[in-house]
Amino acid sequence: MPIIKTSREQIIKDAIYLFKVRGYFGTSMSDVAQSCGLIKGSLYHHFGSKEALGLECLKYIHEYFALTVFSIAHLPNLSGSEKLIRFTDEVESYFLESEGGCLLGNLILQASGDMPEFKAEIESYFNDWEAALTAILIASFGKAQATQTAREIIASTQGCIMMMRLYERTATFKNMNNKVRQLLA
Q1: What angle do CA 87, 64, 20 make, to 5 degrees?
Q2: What residues contact 179, with CB distance under 8 A and at least 6 apart?
Q3: Is 2 helix (H, G, I), strand (E, B) or coil?
Q4: Domain locations along the chain
Q5: How is residue 102 annotated by DSSP?
Q6: Which residue in 16, 24, 84 sits closest to 56, CA to CA?
Q7: The whole model's pTM is what?
Q8: Nearest one of 169, 170, 180, 150 to 86, comparing CA atoms
Q9: 69 neighbors 132 (Cβ within 8 angstroms)
Q10: What pLDDT, in 10s, does the model give residues 69-105?
């Protein structure tokens, strides 16, 4: 295999894919290196350990969601209903177009007890998701009910992602998202 130069971002993207499909513990640094066309030692130039790479993957997804999904909650030119529809469309698009489920949901189950830095990043991600949904729902439901509804939406989303991966069917996930879109209709 020829050795190629790969960017840090591409390594993260390849690692995310592998962690989502094979699991964090089922993926080695050698697997990531092979996926990127690198020798294993080259990965350590970018990441000091598998844990450091895993944490950067979590941060990468969190930043992606912050920029493309969570930010929708604060767009001034959209109604609450329009924000919720667009928000839900973006979440649905992300999870339908990527293989392997939700890396953050997977890792909270696999590794958070042993890796407090993973837990902190995952918690921050889900807190931001909840805050964004609450911001969209608050005008219609009030703070307490908006927060509770946001938590229920996130829990339903994560459960549907798991079921979608298990049964290889998207219908339950799409139906749940349709119900979310109707909350402010």
Answers
A1: 100
A2: none
A3: coil
A4: 55-184
A5: -
A6: 16
A7: 0.91
A8: 180
A9: yes
A10: 999 999 999 999 999 999 999 999 999 998 888 888 8
Phi-psi region of 169 (alpha: psi -120 to 50; beta: other; left: phi over 0): beta
Q: Which helix (H) or strand (E) holds 93?
A: helix 80-97
87's CB contacts (< 8 A; 6+ apart) are 69, 72, 73, 132, 133, 136
How do the residues of the chain divide into helix, strand and coil, expressed in percent and rounded to 5? 80, 0, 20
Phi, psi of 122 (to 5 degrees): -65, -45
Residue 72 DSSP class: G
pLDDT mean across residues, the chain: 92
Task: Report how far residue 123's alpha carbon sits from residue 171's, in angstroms, rounded to the nearest whole number.
Answer: 28
Question: Which positions ≥6 away from 118 have C-beta within 8 Å?
Answer: 51, 54, 55, 58, 107, 108, 111, 112
Distance, in Å, from the CA atom of 27 to the CA atom of 17, rounded to the nearest integer, reads: 10
* Residues 6+ away with beta carbon under 8 Å from 117: 51, 55
- The CATH number for 55-184, chosen from 2.40.128.20, 1.10.10.60, 1.20.1250.20, 1.10.357.10, is 1.10.357.10
